[in-house]
Every structure is written in structure tokens, then in C-alpha cells.
Amino acid sequence: MRLTNLDMDVLRTLVTAIELGGFARAAARLGRSQSAVSLQMRRLEEQLGATLLRKQGRGLALTEAGDVVLGYARRILALNDETVAAVRGLDLAGAVKLGLPQDFAEVWLPAALGRFARAHPQVRIEARVDRNFVLLEELTAGRLDLALIWGEAQHPGAEVVARLPIRWIGRSDVSFDPAAPLPLIAFQPPCQFRTDAIAALDRIGRPWRLSFTSPSLAGLWAAAEAGLGVTMRTRIGLPATLTVLDNLPALPDIALTLHQAGRATPVVDRLKQILVETVHDGIGTVELGAAA
Questions:
Q1: Is the pTM of this model over 0.70?
Q2: Under 8 Å CB-to-CB from 56, ≥6 apart: which residues?
């Protein structure tokens, strides 16, 4: 039986198109024409003998076969990129200190650090998971090289990695009297999520009260799972026992920014690249899952 070798450029186009939400955006990102991208997708379908995309409204959606191919494509590309990085970065050595919000501790942090460690075994990584204001203090003091922070850039050279919608989150089987103050589960201040949620309620004159505060995200999830109220967060790390609530006022998007302390080094630059790629891949997965 003759084996079929898939073209990694075509797989990268597929992944990019799905993550960006269309062929036109993928074409612009990859520097190709939209017709060339469409031709690549048709050839991939011919190679696999399956339809990967179907029309959905004005756009396209993955078929069941397309969803399978997308998962494998991500793994193939990650291994390819890791191989290239490992060979090119054999001489990388030293240490790098990274700070991340609690949302990423169990979701994307292990994958990003594992990928970096496999490619650059001579680099020592130290990671700190904490709240925004703590990470900013550590960054300013020079105790972190990189930090992912919720909110707009607060340091020169910081860049916005993504913007995500803030959601009301709670149990689907627990309702609250609309005439009574809405019980809120929130971080202790300062917290941008808390500030935006209270502002949204105040704009429509909806009374509220703080039913539970905690310094940890695990505490917020536990209180929401117990039905003590509603909390506000992105979909990242959303426990299976909780859901997004749509019957409350709309909340704004929140920026996810990557801050860097001091001058760039090859080690810091490489970890920065892996972080950005991991976040973009993760966000695409989260949003696709939400839309399914």
C-alpha cells in the first residue's frame, strides 16, 4: 500500500484559516491569494478522499472529518516546529523566569513549558503563577523576565497577545431573584474583571452584593460550583460543571498582554515565541469549542 505524505504547508494553511476564521484572513497572514488557499484545501480533500469543510451561513465550518484532520494537523505542525527549534537552538543555555495568571496554570502552562524544555534542555525555567498586581511588582523588580498579564499594557514594549470576551459564569441550574441583589463571586481588589462586571451592573441599575471573595481562581470556581453566585472570567479553564450565563448585561473584552523586563536575549525571545503560539492555538480551541 502506497502511503500518502501530507504537505505541511497545506496543513499550516488549514490551521491558520480555522484559527483566523476564514480563507481571506489566512491568505493575508500567509502571503498568498485567496484562490491559492482554496486550491490547497481542495487538494488536501482529494488526498484524503473526504470533505473537510462545509458551508455555514456566509462562512465555512469543519465537517467531522475536518475536525479530525485539524487535531492531527496541529500535532504534526507542533512536532515539526519543535524539531526545527531544537536543532537551531542547541546552543541556547541560561535561565528564564516567567509569570502567568492563574487561568493558565493548568490549561496551557504545562504544554508551553514542556515544549520549551524539550527543545532547549540546557535552559532552566522558573515559572510563577499569581495575580496581576503581584506579577507586575515582580516584573518591575526584575525578578521576572516575561509575564502574561490581564489588561492593557502597563510597561513600555508590552504587546497585546489577544483580546477575549469577559463572560458571566455560574451553574446553569441555579437561578437568582432578579429583584434581589445579584450575588457576585470575585477576586479581592484590584481586579479588572471585578471592576468591569460591577460597572456593567451599575449602568443598568441592577443591584449587586459580594457573596464571596478569594485571592485564588480555584476559590472562585469552587464558590460558583457551590451555587453561591456568579463570577466573571473568560472561557479559559472553565470547569465542566459551570457554564456561560447569557441573561446578564454584556461585558467588554479584556486584553491579554505580554510584558518583558529588560533587554531581549535569545532565550527570552524563544520562550516569548512559544508563549504567543501556545496562546493563539489555545484560544482557537476554546472559541471553536464554545461555538460547537
A1: no
A2: none
Q: Over range 36-45, report the average pLDDT.
A: 86
Task: Estimate the crossing angle of helix 109-119 against helix 64-88, to 10 degrees.
Answer: 40
Task: Please state, in angstroms and rounded to a whole number, the distance separating the CA atoms of residues 72 and 91.
Answer: 30
By the 10 Å C-beta count (0-12 exposed, 13-18 middle, 19+ buried), 262 is classed as: exposed
- What lies within 8 Å, CB to CB, of 23 at 6+ separation is 17, 34, 37, 38, 41, 60
In this predicted structure, what is the pLDDT of residue 292?
43
Which domains, from first to last, does the chain contain? 8-86 (1.10.10.10), 93-156+262-291 (3.40.190.10), 167-251 (3.40.190.10)
Cell numbers that stand for 109 in this block: 502552562
Q: 129-165: per-residue pLDDT in tens?
A: 999 999 999 998 989 999 999 998 777 778 898 899 9
* Letter string b/e over residues 138-164, b meaning 16 or more CB atoms within 10 A of that residue's CB: bbeeeebbbbbbbbeeeeeebeebbeb
Q: Give me the chain's average pLDDT, please.
A: 86
- Cβ(31)–Cβ(16) under 8 Å? no
Do 20 and 12 contact (CB within 8 A), yes or no?
A: no
C-alpha distance from residue 241 to each of 176, 188, 224, 272 (Å): 18, 23, 9, 33
**What is the C-alpha separation between 12 and 68, in angstroms, rounded?**
15
Whether the bond into 190 is cis, omega within 30 of 0 = yes
Structure confidence by residue, pLDDT tens digits, 199-244? 999 999 999 999 999 999 999 999 999 999 999 999 998 999 999 9
